[in-house]
What does this fold into?
Amino acid sequence: MKLRELTALELGAVIKKGEVCVREAVQAALDAVAAQDGALNAFITVAGERALCRADKLQAGVKDAQSPLYGVPMAIKDNICTRGVRTTCASKILGDFTPPYDAAVVEQLADAGAVSLGKLNMDEFAMGSTSETSYYGPVKNPWDLARAPGGSSGGAAAAVAAGMGWYAIGSDTGGSIRQPAAHCGVTGMKPTYGTVSRYGLIAYASSLDQIGPLCRDAADCAAVLDVLMGHDCRDATSLPGLDSDWNGSGPRADYGHLLERLTGDVRGMRIGLPAQCFGDGLDGAVRAAVLGAAQVLKGRGAEIVELSFPVLEYAVPAYYIIAAAEASSNLSRFDGVKYGWRAEEYDGLADLYRKTRTQGFGREVKRRILLGTFVLSSGYYDAYYKKALQAKAVIKDAFDRAFEGCDLLLTPVTPSPAPRLGDSLGDPLSMYLGDIYTVSVNLAGLPALSMPCGLDAEGMPIGAQLIAPHFGEGAALSAAHAFQLDTDWHRRAPKGGEAP
Amino acid sequence: MIDMELADYIARLSQLELEEGEKRAMTAELERIVAYMDVLNRLDTQGVEPMSHVFPVKNVLREDAAQPSWDRGELLAGSPGGDGEAFLAPKAVE
It folds into this structure.
């Protein structure tokens, strides 16, 4: 049996049956890391010994295991705190930070019997769209080592695509799960804001950040989300569930059972194609592949609806203003006093702060801190920050109206396939504009996934995005599952054990 | 709109130092980015309430129940200038 060709659920099933032991699975993944990660640089920290010890402990509980993912090796983006395992956020400033606690999602995964192989490379503080801003060097795309894997969860997408673990946990502030998933040919989902605890996620833009899975297919995503989603009182924006005590105001989330609700039945489902998402600036191969996905869903009984989404052009400026503003505030905590790295030479307290931050942060992080400080500063607040919050309200309204006429939206994830390494770094504005199809989802707090739907002429993966109304994870996953029942793009990922 | 003087000012507010060449490049990049943000001026937001959170978020009070605290030694272990007893930083007030 070629373990690395299995999905996470398939591996979980053979572990449960006793056909494969957990240690074998972990060893297979570690072998893949040893063979390939020198070239890919997807991991910042490999915790091999720890993973093998954990495997042996878990083996004793296989018979009683409840989770379908019990014993399945995976890995975690390095902005999610892991007790006793270094968590760098791909920054020099957190280079030797070992958290004294686990993030909520890490506790949930441990309860479900997950085995972590280690921590995944990313853009520094999740700021970037190519995973090239990491202090620990760029991640390479397993489909073409000369290209970026996307970002900021580029290590997560590359690891899953290359068979270095069966799924990964990433975070998505403006597309950081969906965009690298598209560029690496894997399936990734950002759930509804407030449905996965952010406790222990190192904050970039708190009103937009959300943790989610990157997997080999939609069914695996459903299974991982069943583990991750739920209320947590340690995150003030975490939403109560339908079955919980509820104080009578605000929305409640419909948690759980995503995997068992995954029917693949899309008959009568109305899938909207927003005209503005297929206009100028979209690569021809991407357009053709995403429209092809619409035809597959139509073939399974969905109804395709064309509609207008006139506010698309406001999403990128509104997003970058809000995200930078929150980043400038969130990153003020990194000052070289309580944890993290401290500059070696300084003259007094203020100089300690300045030298530590100046030498500890990379260029893109500084750029966003400066931009955020600017839009929040006296005299510019109303023109930029307040205006962006108003634009956010308008964008949310536009989604509400769109979902009156359809159940899901289908769009591209990115305007073009993965860029060549180095092409984006010199031109930050162009990199920001590449986020056009993903950022509006975060502004409106919606769930959305990216699924592989084709390859371009050079053999690079293309992703299609399905966006659902709040708490519509089940519908989006069902449509993706339906698509994957009829296609094999998700199985084309270079995951067979051969070097890419 | 963003010139070297304004870049200096926001760098100071951000507790960051920009050396001359970096400041010049950063000023030009920020100017281009901020100029692009002006696209938002085409959007009519007359009478639109600024939206901080998509869902109505309000303060929720919980029972004031005692919880075990973090281990002091573990927290101090991460401090770059700590002595195991306290966080250490240069004197701030003479």
In short: Chain B touches chain A through 53 residues (CB under 8 Å). Residues 73 and 80 of chain B are 13 Å apart (CA to CA). The radius of gyration of chain B is 23 Å. Residues 4-42 of chain B form one domain.
